[in-house]
Fold DNA repair protein RadA.
Amino acid sequence: MSRSAKAKTQFRCSECGWTALRWVGRCGECQAWGTVEEIDAAPSGDVAPARVGHPARPIADIDVESAHAAPTGLDELDRVLGGGLIPGGVMLLAGEPGVGKSTLLLEVAALQADRAPVLYVTGEESPGQVRLRADRLGALAPQLYLAAENDVAAVLGQVDRVQPRLLIVDSVQTFTAPDVSGTPGGVTQVREVSAALIRLAKSRGIATVLVGHVTKDGGIAGPRVLEHLVDVVVQFEGDHHSRLRLLRAAKNRYGPTDEIGCFELTESGIIGLPDPSGLFLTRRNEPVSGSCVTVTLEGRRPLIAEVQALVAPTGMPQPRRATSGLDSSRVAMVMAVLERRARLRVGGADVYTSTVGGVRLGEPSVDLAMALALASSHTDVPLPRATIAIGEVGLAGDVRAVGGVQRRLAEAARLGFTRAIVPRLSEEPVPGIDAVGVDDLGQALRATLPAEQH
């Protein structure tokens, strides 16, 4: 054998696949620590044909009945998944601690257990704790089986005994695989546990849901390959001080990734919100300054949201800035544009900005609403009633077009708004609403505030 054909020792990052000829403590590609492991690179050569396990067939002869989605019983979850759970499909549900992942899955398990056996395996809680939560949620079903395990081999044994149609594993970072070194939650253990559960789901046609922890940066803990192996990756998000929870699909082999599910977390469980816009508006009899309503797109879904601003004089040498629910860098940019292009002296004052209902708005289309809310608070003049603002503000003070304007205006008209400040060329007629097109921030201010105020 030639020297080039001999196996060479290499080192590979388990997160991103970067390889090196010697071990290093930090990956040179993704900069992760402790993820570079030794592997044996097989020598290159010809590959002999092997016995075929499943002969290829014409695509028209493939049976698709087993790939149809089964509704979960929660319409908002089905919206995100593309219809429901797929037999043999593996979904990874990630979210911060306490956001409501286990509550959501216990509701789904109880609904599915009315039709077929469901196995809920918990590695974090005792069976008694889960039973108490099920009592509170009213999620007791005869065919809902509960097990507390930390060994993936024991999970396979439980599956043999129960024969479930749905398997829920909460959470994958707490399980270990036999004959594999490493601590629970480590890169090696998470990879092996996930691979064993995915093989089980595919071979037996069991819909499987894996619960995953997240890091402090919001990413899914464990090796990156975990997200590649599963069929669906969804994120469960929400502020702990708010009842609103949002479910987003980061990856979906069976449906769209631009849908969003809205839920309300209550003491009695998770409730789907088919029309959540009312949570993000303040109900008041008289208009107040510093408030502007906008319409944001969460995936395909238009949501009405309210932006509030308070510009107050300060006696401190360094003005205070506080932001909640908005991108602080975009707020600072809009303030600079108001200062430079509209001659509104807001830089020397304390500025507080927030959203109503705890919703997070990161879309550029919120810029115009932020600017009008800041100008309204600075001049202490309320914006006209039943008015919304949609548009991105550029550094030159121009108002740029955004996507989905017609869908946004239709949602605003449905909720009773009659006037909209939008970018020029976006003011196509929508029944029930008067769209005012503007080219720059100055025109938007003149269309909403008296001329003598700015």
User: Anything to note?
Assistant: Confidence is low (pLDDT under 50) at residues 1-6. The longest strand covers residues 301-312. The chain has three domains: 3-41, 68-274, 279-453. The longest helix spans residues 187-204.
